[in-house]
Amino acid sequence: MVSGVLLAALGPSGWASAGADPAYPLLVVPMMAAGIGTSFALTGSTATVMGAAPPAPSGAASALFDTARQIGSATGVAIGGSLLATATHHTTGLRAGMAIGALAHLAAAGLAWRCVPARPEGGRAP
Question: Which DSSP symbol is given to 19?
Answer without folding.
Answer: -
